[in-house]
Amino acid sequence: MSIQEKIIEQIRQYDTILIHRHQRPDPDAIGSQCGLATILRESFPNKKVYQVGSAAKGLAWIAPEEQVEDQVYQDALVIVVDTANTPRVDDPRYTKGKMMIKIDHHPNDDDFGDLKWVKPQASSTSELIFDLAEASHGELKVSAAAARMLYAGIVGDTGRFMYDATTPHTMRVAAALMERDFDAAAINRRLDDIEPAVARLSAYVWENMQITEHDAAYIILTNEILAKFELGDAGTAGIVPLLGKVSTVKCWTIFVQQKDGSYRLRIRSKKAIINELAKEYDGGGHPLASGATLKDGSKIKEFVQKLDQIAATEIGEQNDQ
């Protein structure tokens, strides 16, 4: 029995299913979570299916959040999607169910769950959810509503199909989803839109970005700067790809100060592996897209030096070829 068949078998057995995703969700977290929830509701009308997590600023258009009472977890199946490690699971009640399933495309550094389907080669967890439905041979029905959410997740996590994790299979899944009756072009436009405040912040980033000796780039966004643009941490997601648009930049980091003075790091790369560096700073993620944290700004210089060395290593590897 394949892992997909084992997951489907567990879904059949439970009357109540709660689906969690990671904190500070992106389109794939919301798309895979709510897409799966929609699939299960429409495929098993008698089951009670819930999507759990705090409100996702700017992503409510994909699907709204729900309020879930504690007693719902009794004898329930919990499915955690798109979440690499337990500290990142949104809502600590994910441990309160009778059984837990993990479905994810991040490296499996935190091996949690009673049943696990982790495939780092996949472009997104939304892609995996579609594959799960396909493995059911029609039992799990992907409606236009579910397809819209999964498509948003795939487009978001592939950077509009520009990232290396985009495979021929990813494109086939996207095409299959687009055959459902929803406006894919509207999803593309919505994910590409930015608010006026983010547009102004983008100009600041272009003007103030720093590029190291070996073409690693970074920008430090303090609370003072964010206040000037009337933006918080959530509003900075739209500027993360900007530094990578510079042709010479190999890897880059956005340092975003939090209200408590700590820094959230959004780390990206075109080819050089950066998730091991992220792990050194209480983070992790994909080889080319990771996150980390610093308790204050004292280690920013140290981090940038290590990022520069990663860029230098890539130069050395290119010279050896």
Describe the structure.
With 321 residues, the chain is an alpha/beta fold. The chain folds into two domains: 190 residues, Alpha-Beta Complex (inorganic pyrophosphatase (n-terminal core)), CATH 3.90.1640.10; 124 residues, Roll (Diaminopimelate Epimerase, Chain A, domain 1), CATH 3.10.310. It has ten helices and eleven strands. Helix 2 packs parallel to helix 3. The longest helix has 21 residues. The protein starts with a helix and ends with a helix.
CATH topology of the largest domain: inorganic pyrophosphatase (n-terminal core)
Shape: globular
The number of distinct structural domains comes to 2
List how many beta strands DSSP finds. Answer: 11
The main β sheet shows up as: 6 strands, mixed
Question: Residue share in helices?
Answer: 25-40%
Spell out the helices and strands N to C: HEHEEEEHHHHHEEHEEHEEH
CATH class label of the largest domain: Alpha Beta
Total of helices: 10
Q: Give the termini separation.
A: 43 Å
User: Which strand-content bin applies to the residues?
Assistant: 15-25%
Overall residue-averaged pLDDT value: 94
Neighbour order of strands in the largest sheet: 6-7-8-9-11-10
Q: From the coordinates shown, what is the CATH architecture of the largest domain?
A: Alpha-Beta Complex
Low-confidence stretches: none
Chain-wise SSE layout:
Layout: H1 3-13, E1 16-20, H2 27-43, E2 48-52, E3 77-81, E4 99-104, E5 115-118, H3 125-135, H4 144-157, H5 168-178, H6 184-192, H7 196-208, E6 210-211, E7 216-221, H8 223-228, E8 251-257, E9 263-269, H9 275-280, E10 284-285, E11 289-294, H10 300-320
Helix pairs in contact: 2-3, 2-4, 3-4, 4-5, 4-6
Protein name: Phosphoesterase
Domain DDH: 17-154
GO molecular function, one term: nucleic acid binding
